[in-house]
User: Which sequence fits this backbone?
């Protein structure tokens, strides 16, 4: 069978060929002018997929770099503050040694005390160092002044948490060290159901009043809270507001979690104030969530009933011995049998050294004060045991109070207290240097990571260029060949579709 090709078919085929060549010519021209061979997904679906993945990776890396650049100031300012404090502690040691050398007079003691006042002022200033109106040593409470002066000495007002940033996939680093770890003390007790709400928010308590709770099924109820309640009472009141709600102490042990088990979801879980009150806010649970509400850190204050196992964010403390110096009277006191703060206080007060231990004015640490007006009570660690500093009553992590005790000791010419303070200054310097080493290690890690990120960006951009980039020599050659093909196609097509006399006669 012989296939007959009509003139119309020939013409259509010729025109389609021209259109195809013209499109290819246009694409080749785009490659030459743009330097890219991929302009839309259909040009190379797999290549486009790979370049999108690479661009997403670069975007993520740049976010990591922004994280580091914006927060590295915390590291540098924190390290410089600790360096300054260390220099001042060394000078305080020198003053102490001079006073203990037997050559001091009332005049030299006066000079030493004045200089020590300046040292304390400088250390306070550095302990309250800022970066962009955020305090470096306040933990994550960056808007709270970390250290304040009270009748009991310096008190720490921040929290015990670290400011953490992500520097690469799966890697977080701490860019701050809470002041409680190096300069002051915060025993950071966890919550329990017996905790009185009056002990929350650093001992400031909560605002009595009411708030509204609406579960995700749309059921609303009003919850009333008084300042005389325990946390168990609060949890029960919230849980009874709806059969779909369960309140509890969160997994970190520092706040309230509200869990919503509604099977029919019509709106968000919402806790809102009633009549302009602030009760929900003071409980850290105000707000609206599509899931559960994770309350804020309630910063429970110490009480005499606080368990030792609840301290240090719920990790507890292992108590050993402390050394008490009060005038000529001194000796070790074992605290290993204590299970509560009340028992710690009792063991110290009944040890026979004429001192009074109590919870400090900030409600987050302990203090030990001499019952005599002519002596200054100083508490030291015993050997490698760090019980004194863990409790915030001596040792290396209570630098500011060590300096303030030293000033008092010089005022009263209490050589026993000066000697005890000297030991704590040594521990303080060791703690300062350890923290500086941490800052340095994090800084080196971030700098190394930055270099890795920069090289990764260069490599990934090269990969994108290899995938998207056109071979200009090849593209130019293809363009010339297509031009020749187009001219040939136009010429042959013109002959095919040239009208004849017979066409006109028809």
Assistant:
């Amino acid at each position: 069978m012989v296939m007959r090709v009509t003139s119309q078919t020939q013409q259509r085929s010729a025109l389609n060929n021209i259109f195809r060549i013209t499109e290819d010519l246009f694409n080749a021209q785009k490659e030459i002018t743009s330097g890219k061979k991929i302009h839309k997904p259909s040009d190379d679906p797999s290549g486009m997929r790979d370049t999108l993945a690479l661009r997403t990776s670069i975007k993520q890396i740049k976010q990591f770099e922004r994280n580091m650049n914006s927060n590295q100031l915390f590291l540098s300012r924190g390290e410089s503050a600790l360096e300054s404090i260390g220099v001042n502690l060394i000078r305080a040691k020198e003053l102490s040694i001079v006073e203990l050398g037997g050559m001091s007079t009332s005049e030299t003691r006066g000079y030493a005390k004045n200089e020590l006042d300046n040292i304390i002022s400088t250390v306070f200033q550095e302990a309250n160092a800022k970066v962009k109106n955020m305090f470096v040593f306040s933990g994550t409470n960056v808007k709270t002044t970390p250290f304040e002066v009270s009748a009991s000495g310096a008190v720490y007002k921040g929290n015990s948490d670290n400011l953490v940033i992500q520097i690469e996939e799966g890697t977080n680093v701490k860019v701050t060290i809470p002041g409680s770890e190096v300069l002051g003390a915060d025993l950071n007790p966890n919550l329990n159901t017996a905790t009185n709400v009056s002990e929350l928010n650093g001992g400031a308590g909560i605002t009595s009043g009411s708030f509204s709770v609406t579960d995700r099924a749309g059921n609303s109820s009003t919850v009333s809270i008084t300042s005389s309640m325990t946390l168990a009472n609060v949890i029960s009141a919230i849980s009874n507001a709806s059969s779909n709600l369960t309140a509890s102490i969160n997994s970190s042990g520092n706040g309230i979690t509200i869990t919503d088990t509604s099977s029919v979801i019509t709106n968000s879980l919402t806790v809102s104030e009633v009549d302009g009150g602030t009760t929900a806010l003071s409980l850290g649970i105000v707000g609206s969530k599509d899931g559960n509400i994770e309350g804020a850190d309630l910063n429970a204050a110490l009480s005499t009933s606080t368990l030792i196992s609840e301290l240090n964010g719920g990790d507890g403390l292992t108590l050993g011995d402390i050394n008490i110096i009060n005038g000529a009277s001194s000796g070790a006191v074992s605290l290993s049998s204590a299970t509560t703060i009340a028992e710690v206080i009792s063991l110290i007060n009944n040890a026979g050294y004429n001192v009074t231990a109590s919870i400090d004015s900030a409600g987050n640490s302990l203090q030990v004060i001499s019952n005599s007006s002519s002596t200054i009570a100083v508490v030291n660690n015993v050997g490698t045991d760090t019980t004194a500093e863990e409790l915030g009553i001596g040792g290396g992590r209570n630098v500011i109070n060590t300096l303030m005790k030293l000033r008092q000791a010089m005022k009263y010419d209490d050589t026993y207290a000066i000697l005890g303070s000297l030991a704590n200054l040594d521990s303080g310097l060791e703690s300062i240097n350890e923290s500086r080493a941490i800052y340095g290690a994090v800084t080196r890690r971030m700098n190394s990571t930055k270099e890795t990120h920069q090289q990764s960006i260069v490599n990934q951009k090269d990969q994108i260029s290899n995938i998207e980039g056109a071979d200009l020599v090849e593209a130019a050659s293809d363009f010339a060949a297509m031009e020749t093909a187009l001219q040939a196609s136009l010429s042959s097509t013109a002959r095919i579709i040239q009208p004849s006399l017979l066409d006109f006669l028809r």
User: Anything to note?
Assistant: The chain is about 45% helix and 15% strand. Residues 197-294 form one domain.
